[in-house]
Amino acid sequence: MTYKLIIQYEGTRYKGWQRLKTTDQTIQQKIENVLSRLLGEPIEIDGSGRTDAGVHALGQVASFKVTETISNLNEFRFQMNQYLPDDIIVLEIQGENDRFHARLNAVSKTYVYQIWLAEQPPLIERNWVLNLGSKRHQLNFEKMKLASEELIGKKDFKGFSTDKTKKGTIRTIESINWEIHGDVLQIKFTGDGFLYNMVRIIVGTLLEIGFDERQVDSLNQIIVSKDRALAGETAPAHGLYLESVRYE
Amino acid sequence: MTYKLIIQYEGTRYKGWQRLKTTDQTIQQKIENVLSRLLGEPIEIDGSGRTDAGVHALGQVASFKVTETISNLNEFRFQMNQYLPDDIIVLEIQGENDRFHARLNAVSKTYVYQIWLAEQPPLIERNWVLNLGSKRHQLNFEKMKLASEELIGKKDFKGFSTDKTKKGTIRTIESINWEIHGDVLQIKFTGDGFLYNMVRIIVGTLLEIGFDERQVDSLNQIIVSKDRALAGETAPAHGLYLESVRYE
User: Looking at the annotation, which residues of B are catalytic?
Assistant: First the structure.
């Protein structure tokens, strides 16, 4: 049987999503440990994609296969959450057809980068937002927003990535939405896929535009040159979370 | 000069507010360290009251005296927040007259106890709410609310405390308000003072009433008998925060 999990986590304490040989402090490993224990056989899960150390998720998706059918999914989810650390939560588990694969079948993803707008530093939200401190006064959001429009569409985003694979670096960004919720600016990126560090490098570059350290119309040059060195710094991981993954 | 601080903190990592000889992991100690360093003389602060290990604050108040006047309070607050750990925040600092004392002058305090209502466990809020899990379905808030009315007024709350001092145990609860914000039930206690563990024991006792494990009209008996053994269990610290302290 094949199952799909919808998962939330706070990445603060972890070395990222992806299982590693050097540490068990990865989100994938924690979930696999609990699944293997509850199901009585070694379980490997496929995430929709990796998230880096410190990056969070409110709607990560993973799939796995197991020999026997899980009889009571609601009870099973409850048990998973009992055994998982309290910064990893299974929101849903559902049966899928055997061809389902969380990464291969993903059609699009939405990532959100959060910037703190209030004068007082964040307390409860401190691990989920980028706090610019007093520098935030100098930030021009309209310029950032305007500049970001150049990124929408099907483009080669090699210049906005530290991906070292030889695989293609062409991706489509469907939309970039700017929303303010209380004291938080959310920049919401939806696309068919994102390269390694792509959202964080885009945000870092947009921040330089917002701070007037870079031309508003300079993003296309990075795309055309495919030169990572022309883009801005990688924005901190803790401001980023994977919001959702869409499937057909 | 005498100054007043308004402070927020997440209590999770600390042994409580009060300075201890055995550890420097107290909120008072962390703030005193930063103040002493910035002001160049040993500073002791007086909090409006102690909060236990794991209890948070959004509006704790403390006062301190220093030889010289602090010239730029805004800049000083900014520096304090630079040096403090990110789970302790100074919201405000202001000069007061020399008779001001955060504990002695406090007129009333508001504490909030938070209970998580959603089916999915809390993620960002996990250190700030009591999650009852699936048991929450059985909780009757109306009964809790009704029962709590017996606590309002000037009473001897010895039975709801583990205070061992010989000082008086008579306190006045001005109001208990019940509010729902999103997935969180807030029980808001305002009074002229609260004994050691008093809010947590009241909440633990109210929970037993909500779960039908105790009579709705049984609270007065605890007040009259002054017997801690008749009250319920102490509710977990992490659901509680000090919201504000009022001064004349």
Answer: 52
Catalytic residue numbers of A? 52
Fold of B2-96: Alpha-Beta Plaits (3.30.70)
pLDDT at residue B248 in the model: 87
Domains A2-96 and A108-247 equal at CATH topology level: yes
Residue B187 to residues A183, A228, B239, Cα–Cα distance (Å): 24, 52, 10
Where exactly are the structural domains of chain B? Answer: 2-96, 108-247
Of all residues in chain A, the one with the smallest CA distance to B80 is A121
Count CB atoms within 10 A of the CB of residue A83. Answer: 13
- Write down the pTM of the prediction: 0.92
Give the separation between CA A106 and CA B57, rounded to whole angstroms: 42
What DSSP string runs through B171-193?
EEEEEEEEEEETTEEEEEEEES-
The answer to whether B86 contacts A126, with C-beta atoms less than 8 Å apart, is yes
Average pLDDT rounded to a whole number, residues A117-140? 92
Who among A121, A128, A134 is closest to B124 (CB)? A128
Whether the CB of A123 is below 8 Å from some CB of chain B: the reply is yes
* Confidence check: pLDDT of B166 > 80: no
Kindly report the nearest CA distance between residue B98 and chain A, in angstroms: 27
Which residues of chain A are within 8 Å of residue B133 when distances are taken between CB atoms? 78
Query: What's the whole-number average pLDDT of chain A?
Result: 95
Burial A192-206 (b: 16+ CB within 10 A, else e): ebbbebbbbbbbbbb
| pLDDT tens readout for residues A10-62 | 999 999 999 999 999 999 999 999 999 999 999 999 999 999 999 999 999 99
> Residues A85-125: pLDDT tens digits?
999 999 999 999 999 999 999 999 999 999 999 989 999 99
Q: Do B78 and A120 touch (CB under 8 A)?
A: no
Give the three-class secondary structure for B50: coil
Q: Is residue B12 classed as helix, strand or coil in its secondary structure?
A: helix
What top-level class would CATH report for the domain B108-247?
alpha beta
Say yes or no for a CB contact (<8 Å) between B89 and A58.
no
How far apart are the C-alpha atoms of A185 and A178, rounded to whole Å? 7
